[in-house]
Write a structure and sequence with these properties.
Helices cover 35% and strands 20% of the residues. By secondary structure, it is an alpha+beta fold. It is globular, with a radius of gyration of 22 Å. Bound molecules: adenosine-5'-diphosphate (ADP) and magnesium ion (4 copies). Adenosine-5'-diphosphate binds at residues 126-128, 130, 182-183, 196, 198-199, 243, 245-247, 254, 321, 326-327, 329, 331. One magnesium ion is lined by residues 130, 194, 196.
């Protein structure tokens, strides 16, 4: 791992790098970048490169628009698909104010702030995301379609799957960029895939999620395919999720593992689950941030709807995978890949820490299939549900001080402003379904 300025300079020379892309995300998680020739690299590494923040979503006002980029040497990676002679490399950056303080509108700084809070208690958060995506064909005019020639299903190996070649190339490219790929497989829906990489600390994984989406899209395009992380592109089949496996390590050991307790889960693990469940409705405004996200969170498509946890079945919001020891973890199943990973991870960590700090006891695990329970039975067990829409989720967020705190006041207000506009734009549209349903009936 590269960790100093000198090492980056050396590596860039060795890899014959000509251009550097300085990358960061806006508050919605959209990747931005500024390209610089390699002779500016030293200046960039010293944090002396300035950009105009006023044109970035959720960043500063015009009158305070000078922002500085501070690249993180650990994120140096060469783009394997670009020429090797005069190569292109990237560095992920934090955003700083002209006075040298971290900028509060920077999602990466925000995650670091919450991680520091965990570190005060001796914890390092570990995250293992499972990103799902669709590969669709590009039509004659170069536009992405919803067509797939692939009829494969979960774990299938088929000659008709054009996506297979693309996926193989994605895996190889990601490996070259420092990902440890654990598995890749065809998912349940036609054209749907999943690539899993090894868990790591929260910041490294948030950077990796952003990089992953960028690489998958780039490689798909080179195979004449369009990769989409849209949560529910096609009605009637599974949508794409981003399960977030999470645990806390303390002194190099998994703090969620306790061989002595009945479920072999520690007190911390239970409180963390309690915190996640308590704040899940507010978190969804961040982890499921689009109008479309809520079309995935419906019964019948393996996505969670109800607020419960289980060590066994996959219907609740939180599953405890069977593995113990270092792999002891909590799997949160509602996040989808349209979220800003820095903010989503920060929100989960904050909620889990709240569970630990205030000693939240979760309700008993629910090992029944919740989808087969009646509404009255669910009420008896105290099982609530996730928000049904972005609008509902935003109201939950506004009412949850812990999750608001994870974002900080600046990002919270900019985020809610942007998302409320998104909801309003959607709300006033006349949708295809309405025409089908009403045009001839009335
Ligand atoms: P699933 O059974 O839900 O399909 P996968 O095998 O696809 O699970 O993904 C499991 C993820 O959990 C991987 O990214 C893996 O690295 C990660 N993981 C393993 N141990 C931990 C841990 N202690 N903390 C967080 N994530 C972990
Ligand atoms: Mg998986
Ligand atoms: Mg799996
Ligand atoms: Mg999956
Ligand atoms: Mg999973």
């Amino acid at each position: 791992i590269i960790s100093t300025k000198a090492e980056v300079m050396e590596k860039a020379k060795e890899a014959n790098v000509k251009f550097i892309r300085l990358q960061f995300t806006d508050i919605l998680g959209v990747l931005k970048n500024v390209a610089i020739p390699v002779d500016q690299l030293e200046k960039a590494l010293d944090g002396e490169l300035m950009f105009d923040g006023s044109s970035i979503h959720g960043f500063a006002r015009i009158e305070e628009s000078d922002m500085y980029l501070r690249p993180d040497p650990k994120t140096f990676a060469v783009f394997p698909w670009r020429p090797r002679d005069g190569a292109v490399a990237r560095l992920m950056c934090d955003i700083y104010n002209p006075d040298g303080t971290p900028y509060i509108g920077c999602p990466r700084n925000t995650l670091k702030r919450v991680m520091a809070e965990a570190e005060e208690l001796g914890y390092t958060m570990q995250v293992g995301p499972e990103l799902e995506f669709f590969l669709f064909h590009i039509d004659e005019n170069g536009y992405p379609s919803l067509k797939t020639h692939d009829r494969a299903g979960y774990f299938d190996l088929t000659p008709i799957d054009m996506g297979e070649d693309a996926r193989r190339n994605m895996v190889l490219t990601l490996e070259e960029m420092g990902f440890e790929i654990e598995a890749s497989h065809h998912e349940v829906a036609p054209g749907q895939h999943e690539i899993d990489f090894k868990y790591s600390d929260a910041l490294d994984i948030a950077d990796k999620i952003v990089t992953f989406k960028f690489v998958v899209r780039t490689i798909a395009q080179r195979h004449g395919l369009h990769a989409t992380f849209m949560p529910k592109p096609v009605f009637g089949i599974n949508g794409s999720g981003m399960h977030m496996n999470q645990s806390l390590f303390k002194e190099g050991q998994n703090a969620f593992f306790d061989p002595e307790s009945p479920l072999q889960l520690s007190q911390e693990a239970c409180n963390y689950i309690g915190g996640l469940l308590k704040h899940a409705r507010a978190i969804s405004a961040i982890s499921n941030p689009t109008v479309n996200s809520y079309k995935r969170l419906v019964p019948g498509y393996e996505a969670p709807v109800y607020l419960a946890w289980s060590g066994r079945n996959r219907s609740p919001l939180i599953r405890i995978p069977a593995k113990r020891g270092m792999s002891t973890r909590v799997e949160l199943r509602n996040p989808d890949p349209s979220c800003n990973p820095y903010l989503a991870i920060a929100a989960c960590l904050k909620a889990g820490l709240d569970g630990i700090k205030t000693g939240i006891t979760p309700p008993p695990p629910c090992d029944r299939n919740i989808y087969e329970m009646t509404k009255t039975e669910r009420e008896e067990f105290g099982i609530g549900s996730l928000p049904g829409s972005l609008e509902e989720a935003l109201a939950e967020l506004a009412a949850d001080d812990v999750v608001k705190d994870a974002l900080g006041p600046h990002i919270f207000s900019k985020y809610v402003e942007a998302k409320t506009t998104e909801w309003e734009q959607y709300r006033v549209q006349v949708h295809h379904w309405e025409i089908e349903e009403y045009l001839t009936r009335f």
